[in-house]
């Protein structure tokens, strides 16, 4: 063993990530033990469970942990005020551990039982005693069918968002799904080992599936087949444009010369990619070429429309309509936010029409929510030569009114440039040098940020507040709104509105009864049968073919293939006044004929007596449109694509939510400046160094090394480049892809 004669810090991040796995092993064994004593259990969507028959009111009455920890934290900060600038989450976790140990030592069990009984009425006590029926003998045989169904559900759930997962995550989710049922961890391990997962010898606990790998491989193989197989995009050199500078004109010329089936155009935040794309589309149209312009999200489509792109639409809408002229060219903006499933459908469709693809995006920013960063796979493995813009134009010192402000904007631009180049430490140092990183006590952070927000609003600057987590976003929204209210910026009268907050669920979770609590409703985001988007339904039960819902006294079956057409929401009482800022969370055609777009930031003019909301821009949100949240603060993902004068960043101190992508997106939104509010500078500096890139299945399978072993495969790709569909069918038969998945699973209702 190598001996190092110096102290080293223990990196426990991966251990903490696995903590939920250990917790679920314990919960599963506890649930089985309760079953042997005759108790039933009720699994909850949040990951824990309750004993069947114990009311929510009693559970709340006995749940004092959060109150105790909050009180302990207040006492600790009073005794040691120097800790106020520390990480509150760490302090709370430490207090939870200490208080639990102290409680167990200080109070005998007999006294605890007396305290518990004293908090129950006689009726409640009798009811609880009646819950424990006669002991039930645990079945000797383990149920492999239950274990296989749980593993299949775990696969569908986890691989929807990730292309590579730790194998213990599959066991964790499967145990949670089948909690208390006659299965063991050892059985799950054996069955997962028989499923033919693809894994790397150096990291055997990281796994992917053949289906995920095949999708990524087909995307890359198709792109490689199309390298230098087409004519130049533009027949003639594009003429000079007054809207473009030298770098942009060079990029336009290189795009016009591309002879690839898939052309990648990349550039950092604020480099002016859209100006070049718009000019390219104009040049193509002048030469009589049919051009279709796409973007992943509706808000991005609206931005493209405002930038004078011809008839843009979403990728999803384009794939539904299946309309593309033969040999047409498809231009996709923000292509980095497209997952492998949708990208593969797009590539197959365009190839079948003899068309070509131009993908514009930046893989240094947030990628897709769905599994597999398709644009990353193309850049790394498809042998494409991207056309790139590097000069940042958003942070322009010429916007300054004074020489001091000019220096500040120039320094701000350097910080963004360093982040774009992956030099995160230099980026942080540059912002710290210009005093943009503000240290503040934990309890004072929202107040300090709210004061800065008010100052910028009073000066007439457009501003957005960004944080890593929704919990911090909610906290900042409340404080900023309170500050605006105190200052008289918002209307004096509040109207309480029952808004609907979307619960983020995978398709697998939408087929799980645990996701539909008594306080949740179903909202149709697309037409289902005769019911229009925005219709609210009540959950009834999960069926083999989908979800049964009740709408206006009618029962409606939402088929499994249409589960993306529904959202599960929780009602949220929200005060509104004139001047309030909202972030809309659903695409909808309004009664007036105008549209509401997911992600939009809007300002309330007045809440009408019928519940409709008039906005500053003249649109009226119908009384039935309730999918919105306060819009003063947003997540970094929600801020992507937005440009404002100033960015205010409220650091939540959550390591798992902080990485290089989150940092780069957040700090690059502003034109003039940024202010970062954090209780722990050093911890934030350390967290932004983490990579936000998710692993590709291709990485796990050592795709690049295999490709180099088979040069004859590359020659086949070049020789049969025009016959892409048949080529892919044959290529998937080579080596790892010469057989179908070894199993297929259906969806079983539990």
Radius of gyration: 28 Å
Q: Strand share of the residues? A: 15-25%
How many strands, what sense, and barrel or not for the largest sheet? 6 strands, parallel
The number of E-state strands comes to 29
How many helical stretches? 29
Oligomeric state of this protein: single chain
**Class from secondary-structure proportions:** alpha/beta
Strand arrangement, major sheet: 8-7-9-10-6-11
Q: What coarse outline follows from CA principal-axis ratios? A: globular
Detail the topology: elements first, then pairings:
Elements: H1 13-17, H2 19-36, E1 41-43, E2 49-51, H3 56-62, H4 65-79, H5 88-106, H6 109-118, H7 122-131, H8 144-158, E3 165-166, H9 167-177, H10 185-193, E4 198-200, E5 203-208, H11 210-225, H12 246-257, E6 262-267, H13 273-286, E7 291-295, H14 298-306, E8 313-314, H15 315-321, E9 329-332, H16 340-352, E10 356-361, H17 374-381, E11 387-389, H18 403-420, H19 424-433, E12 437-439, H20 445-458, E13 463-467, H21 470-487, E14 495-503, H22 507-510, E15 521-524, E16 536-543, E17 546-551, E18 554-559, E19 566-576, E20 581-584, E21 588-589, E22 595-596, E23 601-607, E24 613-615, E25 620-621, E26 628-630, E27 633-635, H23 636-639, E28 644-650, H24 660-667, E29 670-678, H25 681-687, H26 697-700, H27 703-709, H28 711-719, H29 724-731
Parallel strand pairs: 6-10, 6-11, 7-8, 7-9, 9-10, 12-29, 13-27, 13-28, 28-29
Antiparallel strand pairs: 1-2, 3-5, 4-5, 14-19, 15-16, 15-19, 16-17, 17-18, 20-23, 20-26, 21-22, 23-24, 24-25
């Amino acid at each position: 063993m190598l001996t190092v004669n110096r102290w080293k810090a223990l990196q426990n991040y991966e251990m903490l990530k696995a903590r939920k796995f250990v917790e679920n092993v314990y919960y599963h064994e506890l649930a089985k033990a309760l079953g042997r004593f005759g108790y039933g259990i009720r699994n909850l969507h949040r990951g824990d469970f309750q004993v069947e028959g114990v009311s929510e009111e009693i559970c709340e009455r006995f749940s004092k942990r959060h109150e105790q920890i909050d009180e302990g934290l207040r006492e600790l900060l009073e005794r040691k005020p120097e800790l106020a600038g520390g990480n509150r989450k760490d302090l709370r976790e430490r207090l939870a551990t200490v208080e639990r140990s102290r409680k167990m030592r200080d109070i005998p069990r007999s006294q605890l039982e007396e305290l518990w009984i004293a908090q129950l009425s006689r009726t409640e006590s009798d009811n609880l005693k009646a819950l424990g029926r006669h002991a039930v003998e645990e079945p000797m045989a383990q149920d492999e069918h239950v274990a296989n169904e749980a593993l299949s559900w775990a696969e569908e759930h986890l691989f929807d968002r990730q292309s590579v997962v730790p194998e213990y995550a599959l066991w964790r989710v499967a145990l949670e799904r089948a909690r208390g049922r006659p299965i063991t961890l050892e059985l799950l391990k054996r069955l997962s080992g028989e499923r033919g997962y693809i894994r790397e010898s150096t990291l055997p606990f990281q796994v992917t599936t053949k289906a995920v790998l095949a999708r990524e491989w087909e995307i890359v193989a198709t792109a490689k087949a199309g390298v230098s197989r087409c004519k130049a995009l533009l027949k003639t050199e594009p003429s000079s444009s007054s809207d473009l500078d030298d770098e942009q004109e060079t990029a336009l010329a290189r795009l016009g010369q591309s002879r690839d089936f898939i052309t990648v155009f990349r550039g950092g935040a604020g480099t002016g990619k859209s100006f070049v794309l718009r000019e390219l589309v104009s040049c193509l149209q002048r030469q009589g070429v049919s051009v279709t312009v796409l973007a992943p999200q509706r808000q991005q489509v609206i931005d493209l429309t405002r930038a004078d792109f011809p008839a843009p639409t979403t990728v999803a809408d384009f794939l539904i309509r299946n309309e593309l002229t033969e040999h047409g060219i498809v231009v996709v903006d923000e292509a980095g936010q497209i997952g492998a499933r949708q990208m593969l459908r797009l590539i197959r469709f365009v190839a079948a029409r003899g068309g070509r693809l131009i993908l514009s995006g930046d893989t240094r920013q947030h990628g897709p929510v769905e599994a597999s960063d398709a644009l990353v796979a193309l850049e790394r493995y498809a042998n494409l030569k991207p056309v790139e813009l590097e000069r940042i134009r958003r942070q322009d010192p010429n916007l300054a009114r004074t020489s001091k402000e000019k220096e500040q904007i120039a320094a701000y631009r350097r910080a963004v440039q360093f982040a774009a180049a992956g030099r995160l430490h230099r980026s942080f140092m540059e912002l710290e040098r210009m005093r943009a990183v503000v240290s503040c006590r934990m309890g004072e952070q929202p107040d300090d940020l709210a004061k800065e927000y008010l100052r910028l609003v009073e000066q007439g600057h457009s501003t957005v507040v960004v944080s890593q987590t929704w919990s911090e976003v909610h906290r900042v929204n409340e404080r900023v709104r309170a500050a605006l209210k105190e200052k008289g910026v918002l209307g004096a009268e509040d109207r309480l509105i029952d808004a609907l907050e979307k619960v983020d669920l995978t398709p697998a979770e939408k087929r799980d009864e645990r996701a539909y609590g008594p306080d949740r409703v179903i909202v149709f985001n697309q037409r289902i049968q005769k019911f229009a988007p925005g219709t609210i339904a009540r959950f009834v039960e999960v069926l083999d073919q989908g979800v049964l819902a009740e709408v206006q006294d009618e029962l409606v079956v939402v088929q499994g293939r249409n589960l993306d057409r529904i959202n599960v929401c929780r009602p949220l009482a929200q005060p509104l006044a004139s001047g309030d800022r909202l972030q809309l969370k659903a695409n909808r055609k309004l009664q007036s004929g105008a549209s509401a777009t997911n992600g939009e930031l809007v300002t309330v003019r007045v809440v009408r007596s019928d519940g409709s909301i008039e906005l500053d821009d003249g649109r009226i949100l119908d009384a039935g449109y309730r999918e919105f949240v306060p819009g003063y603060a947003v997540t970094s993902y929600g801020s992507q694509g937005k440009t404002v004068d100033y960015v205010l960043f409220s650091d939540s101190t959550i390591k798992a939510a902080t990485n290089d992508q989150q940092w780069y997106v957040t700090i690059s939104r502003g034109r003039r400046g940024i202010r970062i509010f954090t209780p722990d500078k050093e911890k934030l500096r350390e967290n932004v160094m983490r990579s936000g890139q998710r692993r590709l299945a291709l990485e796990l399978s050592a795709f690049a090394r295999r490709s180099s072993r088979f040069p004859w495969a590359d020659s086949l790709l070049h020789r049969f480049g025009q016959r892409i569909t048949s080529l892919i069918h044959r290529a998937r038969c080579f080596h790892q892809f010469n057989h179908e998945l070894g199993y297929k699973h259906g969806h079983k209702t539990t």
